[in-house]
Structure formats: C-alpha cells, structure tokens
Write a structure and sequence with these properties.
This protein is an alpha/beta fold. It has 6 helices and 11 strands. This is BON domain-containing protein.
Length: about 220
C-alpha cells in the first residue's frame, strides 16, 4: 500500500530523531508526491550527509531535494524558529508589549504579528521590537486594537492632561472620531499645547490614527 505524503513526512521526521549523528531540531521536512525536501541547518557537512541518508532509507521516499545549510556554532542563529523564540523572549521582557495577546509567525526571516491589543502604542512597540531582532528581514503587523474610541473619552483625556499643567486650556479644542481614527481641531496658544493634545489623543483606548488639525495662534 502506497504511503501518503503526510505518513512519509512523519516517518522521515522520526528517522531523523532516531539517527544519533543528526540534531533534528533545526531541520524541516516537507513531502510532495513522495519527494522529500529537507531544509534548515546542521553543524557540519557529515551531519548534512547523515540527514540525507536517514531520509533516503525511509520507505516511500521517491527522491530528495536537499536544501540543508551548514552553519557553524560561531555563526548567528537565524533559523525561523530561533528568530520566533527571540521575539517572544523580547516581548516577555518588554513591559509595553502584552505578550499573551500577540501571535508570532516567522517564515524565511519574515515576521507576521497577529492578535488584538488594548492600545495602539502596544501594537507599534511590538512591531519595533520584532524588527530589531537579528535575522529579521521584514515585519507584517496584523495586530488590531481592541475597541473603537469615543470622542467624549478622548476629549476628557485631553482636558485632564491640560489640567495637570498650569495655564493651559483645552476649551477651544474639537475632537471627532470615525472608527478608530481621531481628528483634532480648534486653536491653542503654543506648539507645546498642540503636542499635549495629540499625545493625550493617542493615549485613549482604541485609537489607531490621530490627525492633528489644531491651529497654533500667532
């Protein structure tokens, strides 16, 4: 009885685990019509040959496409699973990133982030943190922000921010929302006041975009 590709894949993976001269942790196995593709990294050329030999002796393997690379211990660890682990570790250490709310996928060095967070800054911080990891060639940020902002809530945050500082008034500032976007308008007396209003808007739950149309009186 002919083996299915999934059964051949499972058998090859088990054979690599069983072979004592092969560290299977960094080796990937895929199968299509009985053709086995080996990918990933090993520590030496003999280990690379041993991995290929282990795959060849599995029943049902028709051919092998071998794409294993030799990577010495002194070289940086840039396998996809190693990159993913370092990203998760960095998220765990970063108090600005809710690691339990974010998913991480790495494919050929390209990182895809998913999940839902409460604040826009958490989404942005996750993207920046992932992009700093060695071996990452790009980041697709699919993290969404949980709730849409309410105009009254944004305005209250701006008012509160102004009240914490002397001689500032937010009475002339207008706030409108559309979905997760906030638009600020009106007039203030100083550039610093404009900056305070914008930062307060970004601090509101659910805000993913802020358009600052506030005019500074001259």
């Amino acid at each position: 009885m002919k083996k299915s590709d999934s059964q051949v894949q499972e058998d090859v993976m088990e054979e690599l685990v069983w072979e004592p001269s092969v560290d299977h942790a960094d080796i990937g196995v895929s199968v299509h019509d009985g053709v086995v593709t080996l990918s990933g990294y090993v520590k030496s050329y003999p280990e690379k040959q041993a991995a290929e030999a282990a795959a060849r002796r599995v029943a049902g393997v028709r051919a092998i496409a071998e794409d294993i690379k030799v990577r010495f211990s002194t070289q940086p660890k840039t396998a996809d699973h190693e990159i993913a682990k370092r990203i998760v570790d960095v998220f765990t250490w970063n108090v600005l990133v809710p690691v339990n709310d974010i998913s991480v996928k790495v494919e050929h060095g390209w990182v895809t982030l998913g999940g839902t967070v409460q604040w826009a800054y958490q989404r942005d911080e996750a993207r920046k943190a992932a992009g700093r990891i060695n071996g990452v060639i790009g980041v697709t940020n699919l993290i969404s922000v949980r709730t849409a902002p309410v105009a009254s809530d944004v305005r209250e945050r701006i008012l509160a921010a102004f009240k914490r500082q002397s001689n500032l008034s937010a009475e002339a500032i207008t706030v409108t929302t559309e979905g997760n976007a906030v638009r600020l308008g009106g007039k203030v007396n100083h550039w610093s006041e404009r900056g305070i209003a914008e930062r307060a808007a970004w601090a509101a739950p659910g805000v993913t975009d802020v358009t600052d149309d506030i005019i500074v009186a001259i």
